[in-house]
Amino acid sequence: MTTFVSDFAAVADWIDRYLADTRAYPVLSQLQPGDIRAQLPEHAPEEGEPFDALMDDFQRIVLPGITHWNSPRFFAYFATSAAPVAVAAEALAAALDVKAMLWRTSPAATELEEVVMQWLGELMGLPPSFTGIIYDTASIGGFTALAAARESLHLGIREHGMTGRSLPRLRVYITEHTHSHIEKACIALGIGRENVVSVPCDAEFRMDAGELARTIDADIAAGMRPMCVVATAGTTSTTSRDPVEAIAGVAKARGVWLHVDAAYAGVAAIMPEFRWVLQGAERADSIVVNPHKWLFVPMDCSALYVRDPELLRRTFSLIPEYLRTPEESVRNYMDYGLQLGRRFRALKLWFVLRSFGAEGLRERLRAHIALAQEFAGWVESEAGWEILAPHPFSVVCFRYAPQGASAEQIDERNAQLLEAANATGEIFISHTKIGGRFALRLAIGNLRTTRDDVAAAWQILRGLV
Ligand code: PLP
């Protein structure tokens, strides 16, 4: 007969061995569609099963169907890392099973969130006047910020809706490199895709602030209502940084909400030499950064900082009788978004910030950036290979472009390279398109990634051409 303690000890032991030995697994799951389903019973069991049976099947059935995001050789998308200390915090949070919605439903969850958001904001150099709130993802934080931006226009949309009456066309300004969640938010908020305006970029994939000004002015002249400009500090494809300072000047001069999406690169601002990443963001109305991307906090933990939390509260607050509480001057986080019950995410961020310390975090980020720069150097100095975008952080976009090959042949060759490299199971990289051309993309963000891992990735890629 096992007990909770022995079961949990077995899990802790498994996690410890797993994290120490992630390289033993194919990084990208090598299964075919349906392989997992085929091993699962059609119906839920009538009788309870012992924990050992669950663990056995976890290892036998589930594990082969896992793509190992926590592998040091996971170089796709934005590579991430779940620090063991944060995994422990997640277990504690699950045990407490807090719904961090009202202050009284766990004062510690509310007050810890307030404090860790202030700590993180301070580390990144944000003015203390910003209020940070944790959401699950940058997509939801972005949606929430855009909802507040819409409310700030005083068009009575919260009360009267957007249909059956005459309203100006609301406009949102992005670039082709803005993350797709902004457009999705505009779909959900009734802005409409037609009103999401893509402003041209310069040769380094950064929004052209002059074009932004001209576009907004033309829209105003045409009777439209600019609602929000989204500047990205660290775009998804290339990690380019829009000129936030210049964009802030354009947006503020015209009374337009500025949202800064720094989901990936924002945390780099904790390093004094990378403060520039969020320069200008102090003039924004909302800023998003994701500790679950590059700050070693496991999924999910995204921080939205807002200049005017009261506006956010006015946008979303709706208090039914059963959620009324007598406490005054406390924050009830349910008032700041769609969700009622919220996970106690502050705990894992608190554990990470304390366990690493700011200097420990800076050290890890610097190491990742140095590895990415070294990888870029290898690519650059190899005949037939080329770098496709500036790489100030820990992501490198590159391709194999042998002399004499046509653009289409090069695209095709790199798409094949990507599949072949990932099929080895040794590494996982991803791709994007830059200027319409296929690009390989290597991202570094795992705590355990070493120079040998990055060198292995390079050897695999080189060996395939
Ligand atoms: N913003 C940027 C710049 C991103 O790169 C991403 C995802 O990679 C997102 C937002 C969405 O992040 P999330 O998965 O937290 O919604």
Main attributes?
465 residues; 3 domains; Aspartate Aminotransferase, domain 2; Aspartate Aminotransferase, domain 1; 12% strand; four-stranded antiparallel sheet; binds pyridoxal-5'-phosphate
Task: Describe, in plain words, how this protein is organized in 3D.
The structure is a single chain. The chain has 465 residues and is of the alpha/beta class. It folds into 3 domains: 1-28 and 67-82 and 357-465, Alpha-Beta Complex (Aspartate Aminotransferase, domain 1), CATH 3.90.1150; 33-66, no CATH class; 99-343, Type I PLP-dependent aspartate aminotransferase-like (Major domain) (Aspartate Aminotransferase, domain 2), CATH 3.40.640. Helices cover 40% and strands 12% of the residues. It has helices spanning 4-20, 51-62, 84-96, 107-123, 138-151, 157-160, 181-188, 209-221, 244-253, 291-294, 309-316, 346-380, 407-423, 451-463; strands at 131-135, 170-174, 196-198, 225-232, 257-261, 286-289, 302-306, 385-387, 395-400, 430-434, 437-443. The chain has a 7-stranded mixed β-sheet, sandwiched between helices. A hairpin with a 7-residue loop joins strand 8 (385-387) and strand 9 (395-400). Helix 8 runs parallel beside helix 9. It is globular. It starts with a helix and ends with a helix. 41% of the residues are buried. The model has no long low-confidence stretch (mean pLDDT 97). It binds pyridoxal-5'-phosphate. The site of pyridoxal-5'-phosphate has 15 residues, from helix 5.
Give the structure's gist in a few sentences.
With about 475 residues, the protein is an alpha/beta fold. The chain has 14 helices and 11 strands.
